[in-house]
Design brief:
about 40% helix; alpha/beta; about 700 residues; Transcriptional regulator containing PAS, AAA-type ATPase, and DNA-binding Fis domains; nucleotide-binding; ATP binding; Rossmann fold; Beta-Lactamase; five-stranded parallel β-sheet
């Protein structure tokens, strides 16, 4: 604990030393240092720079007209008040009523103060007459009472009661503790025992003051814990409080703090007209000493009277960071990039070149378009790019554009205002672009985004701003967008499915992930990695690796991982080619679809869906097979059926294929959970290729 320096100013140096001893007894060890002065000795004091508080007797101040002006501006001053303990005045209560008595002290004012003090303590049975050196004795009185000044009693007085020096009142001690931020003084036994010895008429008010002071100390403690700066300015434009955070933000040294004039601390605010015109300022950005800060000023009114201002100060960057952390806490999902470039396993030259280019792109803030078939690791690469960028300490949020309907995707991405639509929260909702502020937003399967959403996305990329659904306010965002697709974007642009301007905006930086069949040298490495990851103790025979290298890998790395997972169920020490899933033996989804050149019907499939004719046939046949046993089937069930033959088909691809089949009138897609049904035309086509 830092030692606080107190200067005590009293009329009597001996009394001051007595009060000093009391303070040392009540305050924690080494918490205070007290220097005692009388008006004459104080006039010779030169070094006042270390004084944290003045404890001043009003008689000392009254003795010199210039004393009050010599106290440095801004240093707190506490009125030194004293009182008698009950045990020191108990004998006075037993004195016969009407007894005449001299009250002897240093001067007449001190005498009157002592008399009034005793009257407050209900000593009404004695008729006191003030007496100080130089005063005439009005009557021949043989009895005197003095508060620690027996040497001043006239020699003619034979009976003297020396009450001793009065004690500092509990309220005075509390006020000293409050001004010096020494919080634990009245939590201990010493102070409680001390305060109980003052059962005067003011005792209840002292207790009330004690509770009020304790509350004020708690509030001061709260101010110190706040992570925003708080400065209090009174109605005379003087600073009456300032917390630790404000000192830090404003870079206030000890000299400035002692001056405590607002101009030395807040030169960027003008309070000169504050008494007549209350200053009100909300979230104004101010640059002070090369630091951008957000400043808010609130007028203080108590009982309809203007009492000053509270100034709230916050570093702009700290405020941004707090908002970012709050966004992450609210989001509680998808805000961390889990993968790094070191997690990408490859011996392939193609992959090495792709990763090298991606690392260079990570240093920029431009949008990136990652292309590649399903299962090639597009999200892993996007995550690695984020972690290698300057945005790595900020959010990384991934969302699949094909996983939700258009309206839901719009509200997720851009947020909405309260009451924007039926079922909307009254408080509204922040969008993922706002959550991802300063970070990265990964948009997978971007090709499934509707034209209207593409327009809004283009605005974000160009203007760096969003507008919530149902809102009118423009919100600035700083988000890096990484988009991914497994489709031929140029073809989709020609077909009108993707806006040309959006494509060129996204295609500023493009990365293409090679399919697994083009990086066969990585297959053994990846296979061994998945075997270790899934803790499979079996060994893979050489013919398995050969089969892996010749397999088309329609599902790429995801299909390879599913294949390794299949080995977990075999419970064998050595996995051979005969143990491979059925898809390895027939060469893909359907052996009949390996070549589309064999017959006219298969050429028709190639024309309908030129990129993946095997996928179209698989989906059409699977729907027909379920229809034959009076069952409907939807996208998720089709995905599970593909996984049974170790092929991964994303829902987005299944949706596109089904849409093509519907356009060809080979299937009928029912609403809700009705699934799909093969039409007569579709059945006729299937029969034509048998």
């Amino acid at each position: 604990m830092e030692t606080k320096h107190i200067l005590m100013l009293t009329m009597n140096h001996s009394a001051g030393e007595f009060y000093r001893k009391t303070l040392f007894e009540l305050f924690p060890a080494n918490s205070i240092d007290v220097v005692v002065h009388t008006p004459s000795s104080y006039a010779q004091e030169k070094d006042l720079s270390l004084i944290d508080l003045y404890l001043v007797s009003r008689f000392a101040i009254a003795s010199g007209s210039d004393l009050q002006y010599s106290i440095p501006f801004g240093v707190p001053v506490v009125d030194l008040k004293v009182d008698y303990k009950e045990d020191t005045i108990r004998d006075l209560r037993n004195i016969k009523k009407g007894t005449k008595c001299l009250m002897v002290n240093e001067n007449e004012n001190s005498c009157m103060d002592s008399i009034i003090n005793l009257r407050h303590r209900r000593i009404h049975n004695i008729a006191f007459y003030p007496y100080a050196p130089g005063m005439d004795l009005l009557e021949d009185i043989d009895f005197a009472v003095t508060p620690g000044e027996p040497h001043l009693v006239p020699k003619s007085v034979t009976k003297v009661i020396d009450l001793g020096y009065r004690y500092l009142t509990p309220r005075t001690i509390l006020e000293v503790a409050l001004k010096l931020d020494i919080e634990n003084i009245f939590e201990g036994k010493n102070y409680n025992d001390y305060s109980e010895q003052f059962p005067s008429n003011d005792y209840n008010s002292s207790i009330l003051y004690q509770k009020t002071s304790q509350l004020e100390i708690w509030l001061n403690k709260l101010m110190e814990l706040m992570d925003t700066g708080v400065v209090g300015i009174d109605e005379y434009n003087r600073i009456f409080c300032i917390n630790k955070k404000a000192r830090d933000i404003l870079n206030i040294d000890s000299q400035k703090e002692r001056e405590k004039h607002y101009k030395t601390i807040l030169p960027f605010i003008n309070f000169e007209n504050g008494r007549n015109n209350r200053l009100n300022m909300t979230n104004k950005i101010v640059n002070h000493e090369n630091t951008d800060m957000m400043v808010t000023v609130h007028p203080i009114e108590i009982d309809l009277k203007f009492r000053g201002h509270f100034v709230i100060i916050e570093r702009f960057m700290e405020m941004e960071n707090k908002q970012q952390k709050a966004r992450l806490q609210i989001l509680q999902k998808g805000h961390q990039a889990k993968y790094y470039f070191s997690d990408i396993l490859s011996n392939s030259e193609k992959m090495a070149a792709t990763c090298q280019l991606a690392k260079k792109m990570a240093k920029t803030s431009s949008a990136i378009l990652i292309t590649g078939e399903s299962g090639t690791g597009k999200e892993l690469l996007a995550s690695a790019i984020h972690n290698a960028s300057s945005r790595s300490v900020h959010p990384y949020i991934a969302i699949n554009c094909a996983a939700m309907p258009e309206n839901l995707l719009e509200s997720e991405l851009f947020g909405y205002e309260g009451g924007a639509f039926t079922g909307a929260k009254k408080s509204g909702k922040l969008g993922l672009f706002e959550y991802a502020h300063k970070g990265t937003l990964f948009l997978d399967e971007i090709e499934d985004m509707s034209p209207s959403l593409q327009v809004k996305l283009l605005r974000v990329l160009q203007e760096k701003e969003v507008m919530r659904v149902g809102g009118h306010k423009i919100i600035d965002v700083d988000v890096r967008v990484i988009a991914a697709t497994n489709m031929n974007m140029e073809r989709m642009v020609k077909e009108g499915a993707i806006r040309k301007d959006l494509y060129y905006r996204l295609n500023t930086l493009q990365l293409e992930l090679p399919p697994l069949r083009e990086r066969v040298e990585d297959i053994p490495l990846l296979a061994d990695h998945f075997m270790s990851k899934k803790k499979i103790a079996a060994q893979l025979a050489d013919d398995v690796y050969e089969a892996f290298k010749s397999h088309p890998w329609d599902g790429n790395i995801r299909e390879l991982e599913n294949c390794i997972e299949y080995f977990q169920c075999l419970d064998k020490d050595v996995i051979t080619r005969d143990d491979l899933p059925k898809s390895f033996k027939i060469g893909g989804l359907d052996s009949r679809t390996v070549s589309v050149e064999d017959s006219e019907p298969k050429k028709t499939v190639g024309l309908v869906f030129p990129e993946r004719p095997d996928t179209l046939l698989f989906i059409l046949e699977t729907i027909y097979r379920f229809n034959c046993i009076n069952k409907s089937i939807g996208r998720r069930s089709l995905q599970k059926e593909a996984e049974k033959v170790s092929v991964y088909l994303p829902e987005s691809e299944i949706r596109r294929v089904m849409k093509k089949l519907e356009e060809k009138q080979w299937i009928e897609i029912r609403r809700g959970r009705g699934g799909a049904k093969v039409t007569d035309e579709g059945i006729e086509y299937l029969k034509s290729i048998e």
